[in-house]
Amino acid sequence: MNIKIREYRKTDADAVMKIWNQVVEGGVAFPQEDPLTEYNADAFFRQQTYTGVAEDTVSGDIVGMYILHPNNVGRCGHICNASYAVRKDVRGEHIGERLVNDCLFMAREKGFRILQFNAVVASNIHAVHLYERLGFTRIGTVPGGFHMPDGTYEDIILFYHAV
User: Fold this and answer.
1) Which InterPro entries match (predicted)?
2) The CATH number of the domain where 56 resides is what?
């Protein structure tokens, strides 16, 4: 697969929505409980500071995506937050790593100084290992901070990285 990370376009809405919804419906990574629809997906992706997509330049398929947006306002407005999703059938091919690296670059381009993750689910070991490998600093753990689909609560880990 030959992957290029590029800016989201309106024509990407359906493919990007499906990838996003795979994670939402899985219920073990994103805090959202309701999937996006064809009526609100494009507006959601366009309202972000930046939405990036991973495109296979050979097939033209969208295989991953990320959103980048402020984590807070005012005196903390220099801190951003992001979410990443890779299509289920191509996970494990380092697309997530490409998305995170592009996001760090875009965060700097957009004037942010810090990328902070507020809620990395502790059992999401692939994400935890990726962020640690890329030099993110573990800030701490919130015990029971994530409500799992089975009704249990799992710890979340906070990370940051200077951009």
Assistant:
1) Acyl_CoA_acyltransferase, GNAT_dom, Mito_N-acetyltransferase
2) 3.40.630.30
